[in-house]
């Protein structure tokens, strides 16, 4: 038996024992709990004291981390080894936010100089668009950007823009991901092709949705601009520049195969955001992520925010059979965080085999879902409070969400007090006796109180994590996303899986092509299952 499986078994055993004690009770028996389970990292504060683990459970989780050689795997990642072992690639997103004079190597090849050169190129392009030095085909300043991309080529940049955009931006930045033409139709509505820049973002430059949308945008430009002028409006961001140029991009910005799609927002993938926000703002995002990298690299495991966040999840999934997690960002600017995390975590760790191809011996990633607070409170939170299934919650709380809120006397207190209240309610709950006493106090008869009390009872003892930041600044947003990246990596290490491939998305793509071929031929191919054939026929009429 390996040290890892021994530690895993121990964690499961301790967690089963922990089930007999309530979270709220732990504060009484362990006065150091908040201190021990609260850590600061790169301007964020992480509170894990409302998780279900006892002091013993917390230690058992740390022992598991120690048994999994997190330090060794972390060194392999930062050292540019082939951590993505099914594709033989390094995984070096930290190199993208490192200092200019860093010396990262991917499989031994130096990469930092090229990273710095691309950053300089991006900075110049952003400055030139901003100043009007870089003009459209008609020699006018650009006033709008249409960013076309999907998955990792969409979610990160979109989140950055939502979180950091000014209320009245000088560049009208719009995102298009879906192959439903409605998405592009909405994005192009009201834009002037003469002053619109189209940025096509695709690592592979083969993604069906992105190419279909890029063709739509090109046709829209072509209806108004000459081919020579049009080239100035078409920018590619890709790891396959030849493909982008063949397609018609007048200029391309590159990144390498050691940048995974869902880890790519630190690269030229965020070009359109860097242009629209200004390069200095984007640089501050990188600074924040770099601060989190430093924390991850240097903090002891028991004070290491990404490690502890990962352990809380492993404890819930492995120890307590909790296979879902809800994320509630209490900031309108972070409303797409759940969608970003769905890709980051579920595409990274939703795996059935370990690095060596043998079946996993853990449950791997849980289902991640969420909505911004307070919206989610008026919808699915009912089930989080009273449903029979325990769903750990994660509250991301921002003291000042925007300048507008800071002008208000109460600031954001009405927003964040809701987050604190939800976490508290989940933990303390309300007993049947308390519910009954409240009903009686409100004038209900004994019989009525007996009838209604079970409906008004909250089991409580439901775990949550709270993440605090002072303001939605570029640095904090960068640190937050880097925190989640490293958390995802640590989970993958503990589960012994490759977090950096995504073969699970391939089969559907291949079958979609085959179905489209059938549709073009006018009938389902022989051998197609009857259900799919029937659905296809109904759609083809
Ligand atoms: O950037 P692209 O090559 O167009 O890929 C876009 C996305 O599609 C793929 O199917 C993967 O699931 C994602 O990880 C990726 O981010």
UniProtKB/TrEMBL annotation:
<dbReference type="InterPro" id="IPR035476">
    <property type="entry name" value="SIS_PGI_1"/>
</dbReference>
<comment type="pathway">
    <text>Carbohydrate degradation; glycolysis; D-glyceraldehyde 3-phosphate and glycerone phosphate from D-glucose: step 2/4.</text>
</comment>
<dbReference type="InterPro" id="IPR018189">
    <property type="entry name" value="Phosphoglucose_isomerase_CS"/>
</dbReference>
<dbReference type="GO" id="GO:0004347">
    <property type="term" value="F:glucose-6-phosphate isomerase activity"/>
</dbReference>
<keyword id="KW-0963">Cytoplasm</keyword>
<feature type="active site" description="Proton donor">
    <location>
        <position position="347"/>
    </location>
</feature>
<dbReference type="GO" id="GO:0006094">
    <property type="term" value="P:gluconeogenesis"/>
</dbReference>
<keyword id="KW-0312">Gluconeogenesis</keyword>
<dbReference type="InterPro" id="IPR023096">
    <property type="entry name" value="G6P_Isomerase_C"/>
</dbReference>
<dbReference type="GO" id="GO:0006096">
    <property type="term" value="P:glycolytic process"/>
</dbReference>
<comment type="function">
    <text>Catalyzes the reversible isomerization of glucose-6-phosphate to fructose-6-phosphate.</text>
</comment>
<feature type="active site">
    <location>
        <position position="509"/>
    </location>
</feature>
<comment type="similarity">
    <text>Belongs to the GPI family.</text>
</comment>
<dbReference type="InterPro" id="IPR001672">
    <property type="entry name" value="G6P_Isomerase"/>
</dbReference>
<feature type="active site">
    <location>
        <position position="378"/>
    </location>
</feature>
<dbReference type="GO" id="GO:0051156">
    <property type="term" value="P:glucose 6-phosphate metabolic process"/>
</dbReference>
<dbReference type="InterPro" id="IPR046348">
    <property type="entry name" value="SIS_dom_sf"/>
</dbReference>
<keyword id="KW-0413">Isomerase</keyword>
<dbReference type="GO" id="GO:0097367">
    <property type="term" value="F:carbohydrate derivative binding"/>
</dbReference>
<dbReference type="Pfam" id="PF00342">
    <property type="entry name" value="PGI"/>
</dbReference>
<dbReference type="GO" id="GO:0005829">
    <property type="term" value="C:cytosol"/>
</dbReference>
<dbReference type="InterPro" id="IPR035482">
    <property type="entry name" value="SIS_PGI_2"/>
</dbReference>
<comment type="pathway">
    <text>Carbohydrate biosynthesis; gluconeogenesis.</text>
</comment>
<keyword id="KW-0324">Glycolysis</keyword>
<dbReference type="GO" id="GO:0048029">
    <property type="term" value="F:monosaccharide binding"/>
</dbReference>
<protein>
    <recommendedName>
        <fullName>Glucose-6-phosphate isomerase</fullName>
        <ecNumber>5.3.1.9</ecNumber>
    </recommendedName>
</protein>
């Amino acid at each position: 038996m390996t040290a890892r499986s021994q530690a895993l078994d121990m964690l499961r055993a301790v967690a089963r024992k922990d089930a007999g004690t309530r979270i709220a009770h732990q504060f009484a028996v362990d006065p150091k709990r908040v201190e021990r389970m609260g850590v600061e990292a790169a301007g964020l504060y992480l509170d894990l004291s409302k998780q279900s683990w006892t002091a013993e459970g917390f230690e058992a989780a740390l022992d598991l981390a120690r048994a999994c050689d997190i330090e060794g795997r972390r060194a392999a990642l930062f050292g540019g080894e082939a951590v993505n072992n099914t594709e033989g690639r390094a995984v070096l997103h930290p190199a993208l936010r490192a200092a200019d004079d860093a010396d990262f190597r991917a499989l031994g090849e130096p990469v930092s100089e090229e990273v710095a050169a691309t950053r300089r190129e991006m900075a110049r392009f952003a400055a030139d668009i901003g100043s009007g030095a870089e003009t459209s085909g008609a020699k006018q300043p650009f006033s709008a950007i249409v960013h076309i991309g999907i998955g990792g080529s969409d979610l990160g940049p979109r989140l950055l823009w939502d979180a950091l955009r000014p209320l009245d931006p000088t560049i009208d930045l719009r995102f298009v991901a879906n192959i439903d033409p409605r998405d592009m139709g909405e994005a192009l509505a009201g834009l002037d092709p003469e002053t619109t820049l189209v940025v096509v973002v695709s690592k592979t430059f083969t993604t069906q949705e992105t190419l279909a949308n890029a063709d739509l945008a090109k046709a829209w430009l072509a209806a108004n601009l000459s081919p020579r002028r049009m080239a100035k409006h078409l920018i590619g961001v890709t790891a396959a520049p030849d493909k982008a140029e063949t397609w018609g991009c007048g200029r391309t910005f590159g990144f390498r195969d050691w940048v995974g799609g869902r880890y790519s927002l630190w690269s030229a993938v965020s070009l359109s955001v860097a242009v629209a926000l200004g390069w200095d703002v984007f640089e501050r995002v990188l600074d924040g992520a770099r601060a989190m990298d430093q924390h991850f690299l240097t903090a002891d495991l028991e004070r290491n925010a990404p490690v502890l966040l990962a352990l809380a999840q492993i404890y819930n999934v492995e120890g307590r059979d909790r296979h879902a997690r809800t994320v509630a960002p209490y900031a309108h600017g972070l409303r797409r965080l759940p969608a970003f995390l769905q890709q980051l975590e579920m595409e990274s760790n939703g795996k059935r085999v370990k690095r060596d191809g043998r079946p996993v011996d853990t449950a791997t990633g849980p289902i991640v879902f969420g909505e911004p607070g307070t919206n989610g409170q008026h919808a699915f939170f009912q089930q989080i409070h009273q449903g029979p299934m325990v769903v750990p919650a994660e509250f991301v709380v921002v003291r000042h969400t925007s300048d507008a809120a800071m002008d208000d006397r109460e600031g954001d207190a009405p927003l964040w007090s809701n987050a604190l209240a939800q976490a508290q309610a989940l933990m303390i709950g309300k007993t049947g006796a308390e519910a009954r006493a409240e009903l009686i106090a409100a004038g209900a008869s004994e019989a009525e109180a007996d009838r209604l009390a079970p409906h008004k009872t909250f089991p409580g003892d439901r775990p949550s994590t709270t993440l605090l930041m002072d303001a939605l600044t570029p640095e904090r947003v960068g640190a937050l996303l880097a925190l989640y990246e490293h958390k995802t990596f640590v989970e993958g290490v503990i589960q012994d899986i490759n977090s950096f491939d995504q073969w699970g998305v391939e089969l559907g793509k291949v079958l979609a092509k085959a179905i489209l071929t059938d549709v073009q031929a006018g009938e389902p191919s022989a051998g197609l299952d009857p259900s799919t054939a029937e659905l296809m026929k109904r759609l083809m009429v």
